[in-house]
Task: structure prediction
Amino acid sequence: MTTKPAIEGGRPVRRSFLPFARPDISNAEIMAVVRTLRSGWLTMGPRVLEFEEAFRKYIGARHAVAFNSCTAALHTTLVALRVGPGDEVVTTPFTFAATANVVALVGARPVFADVEPDTLNLDPSNANARLCARTKAVIPVHYGGQPCDLDALAERAHAHGAFLLEDAAHAFGAEYRDRRIGSTGTAAFSFYATKNLTTGEGGMVTTDDSDLADRLRLLRLHGISRDAWKRYTVAGDWYYEVVEAGFKYNMTDTQAAMGLVQLRRADGLLKRRRSHARYLTKEFKDVPNLTLPQERPDTSNAWHLYPIRLNLPRLRIDRAKFIEALRAENIGSSVHFIPLHLQPYYRDRFGYRRGDFPVAEAAYERIISLPFYAGMTREDLDDVVEAVGKIAQYYGR
Result:
C-alpha cells in the first residue's frame, strides 16, 4: 500500500523542517573573523590579498581578483572588456537574473540561446547560431556545478572574435577534462551564503589575462590608481589619482578571513557534497516518475545543486503541488530557474516570448532543487528520499 502524503492527512516524514540550503560554518571561520575585527582592518586589506593568492593557487589560475559579489565580478569584467551599446552577449536563459542583468547594465543586448536537454547548460550549437559581428562575449553558466562543454563553446566564440566569460557561480571545485574550472580563460565565482565556498557575500574573477586582471583591480575600487588601499598603511601616502570612473565593488577583509578558512576546508566540503550526490542518485534509482541530474564522463560536478525533474504526464499533480507536498513533509526545496526570457523585463525590453527556448521552458515546468549542502546527515538524505518517493508514488498515474 502506498503511504499517504502529509498533505493528504498522512504523517510527515520529519518533525522539524529541513531547509533547502544551509552554510557550513565552523568555529574556525568565526574565530578568523573575530581576529580580523580585532585587528582594526575591516575593509579591503591584507586578508583580501592573501585570499586572492590562496584562491589563485587552489584553482591553478594566473590571477585572482576579489569582489563583493559574483554580480560585481561579471559586471566589472564586461566593463573591462569594453562591452557596451550596440554589442551583443550570448548567454543562457536558464540562470539567475544577474547573468543577463549585467549585460543590460553595460548597455549591450543579452542574446539568449537554448540549453542542452541533459545538463541544462548552454547548447554550443544553439549558441553558435546566435553569434554575429555584434557578438562581443559569450557567457556560459555551469548549471548546478556541472561544467559546460567549454572547448566547443570557446571554439565557436573565438572564431567570431568573442570573449568567453564563464559564469562559475555554481562551479567552485568543478573540473572539465582534468582541469579545474577557472584555471584557464576567465571565470567569475560566487561566495554567496549557500555556495560551495562562502564568505557571506563575495565573488572572484580568475583569469590568465594579465592586462584584464590589472584593469579589474583598477575598476573595482573607484578607478583609483593601483594599491589605493595602502594609503592607510605605514607604506602609504595620502595622494591618489582617479584614472577612470570605477565602482565600489571591493571585498572586505572580514569576508576574506572567512574565505581563507573555507578554502582550507574546501576539499572536505566538496568530498561530502559528492558523496551526498552519489547516495541520492543510488537511492532515487527505483523511485518512479523522476529524471535525476547527470554527470558527464569528462567532467567532475561540483554539486552545488541536486535538481530532479518530474515526469509530469505520469503524475496527477503539477510541480507547484509537488513542492507544496514536500513542504507538508517538512522538506524545503526551490526552483532553479525561471527562464529569464519569461521575466517581464526581458520580455518587454527585448521582445522575448514564451516558446522561444523550448528546452529551457520544459525543464522549468518540471524541475525541483532538493535540499543539498555539505552538512546534511545521512538521516537528512534518507528523509528527502522518503518524502520524494512517497509523493511520486502516491500521485502516480
Remarks:
- The mean pLDDT is 96.
